[in-house]
TrEMBL record:
Name of the featured protein: Glycoside hydrolase family 1 protein
One protein family per Pfam: Glyco_hydro_1
Lineage: Bacteria, Bacillati, Bacillota, Bacilli, Lactobacillales
PANTHER family listed in its UniProt record: 6-PHOSPHO-BETA-GLUCOSIDASE ASCB-RELATED (PTHR10353:SF122), GLYCOSYL HYDROLASE (PTHR10353)
Species of origin: Enterococcus asini
GO cellular component: cytosol
GO molecular function, one term: beta-glucosidase activity
GO biological process: carbohydrate catabolic process
Amino acid sequence: MTKILWGGATSASQYEGGYENRGIDTQDCRPYSPKTEDATVATRLLTEEVIQEAKRKDGRHYYPFRKGSMGYEHWEEDIALLGDLGLDVYRLSISWTRIFPKGNDEFPSEAGLQYYDRIFHSLKNQGIKIFLTMNHYAVPLHLVESYGGWLNRQMIDDYLRLAEIIFERWGDLIDYYLPFNEINAGYFSPYNGVGLIKNGTNPYAYQDIFLSLHHQFVASAKTIQMGREKGVKGKFGAMISCFCYYAHTSRPEDNLRLVEDEQINQWFCMDILSRGEYPYYMEPFFKKHRVDLNISEEDTKVLRAYTCDFVSFSYYSSSISSVSESNQQTAGNLVATTKNQYLEASEWGWQIDPIGLKTTALKAYDRYQKPIMIAENGLGAKDTLVDGQVHDPYRIEYFKRHFEQLKEAEAMGVPVLAYLAWGIIDIVSAGSCEMDKRYGVVYVDADNQGKGSYRRIKKDSYYWYQQYIAMQKEGE
């Protein structure tokens, strides 16, 4: 059995900043809103009006993803911190608009390419494996406004141009590839996942959502095809957000709802990317919601022939399935859920369930029989800087409990490739567009309005994780 690689993860849109040195993307248009009950939802249901406001140079709002954690300026220091931490692997993403400012420019930006040259070579010099997310939510705004982004099949070709640059420039450096982050987010959060702009107060059209997702499925398969034909050394993964559903009661109706929730919300995308075909249960779903994808024979062939090498998922909390709508609700990653009376929750209402991580790993391996990677996991909390230090025993306890469950899954025979702590360096939260919700073991001195020194400070959890990784290496 291969050893678990211990790592950390960030995304370009939440970490890099450097807005002046790239084109504008969909994440750059999400404004910060003072925390309210619906702030997380409001910041990912963007209308044309909100987009136009974001493009104005004299806009009234602060757009946190344009500054991120100022990784563009601090990358060298940050990679040194990751090296000292002892990480085996680091998951990061490419900013599409740093390579192609409009998304489909005739030539790539040499400055953008050189920026990632430095990043990748520095990681290799530190002995850290590279797990590259090729597209983490952010879509070039120009492509969305020009032809609808992922709603248009042209997007596949534009994405493949980016993939070709990645393979030809860094194919000998990258160890793991992920074409799309949390691909099922296209269903729950269409603006984030597939770049769909909301039509006023009208709900998103199912036809638009699933056609956009289909184009991403084909783009993922064709990316794997291209990578294999070019002989790149890295392995290819697929990723979904997992929610570990429990039935609210022993009522047959609640347990049937659990199966349906898992199928549509959690497994649907991975069934296609790992097994190579649309699952049987989507046919009645598409019929009910009047979805007609008109899938071509070529699409069917490429999806079947180029499936992923490993299965990865994000996991933060578990969820409850119920046919009753009267149950108390609580927040979660991408979707709300019924509150579980047996679990504690974070300040943001996300229920903390370490056993759910083990359960999810077992279910994923049962279903796909491919190596498993925990692409994201961690605790978002409001850390406090006192006398130059950050004491976060709650995060250490969170790690301890989740690592224990993951090791138990491995002991039961699940081939766990890696665990990646999300937001290993504090980043802007993708859900609530704020800095207050921190995941990192490295503190970034900045507030929700982008004010602060952006100085990096090691938290207590940094030293704990550093020691834990060292102990795992000693035990090999």
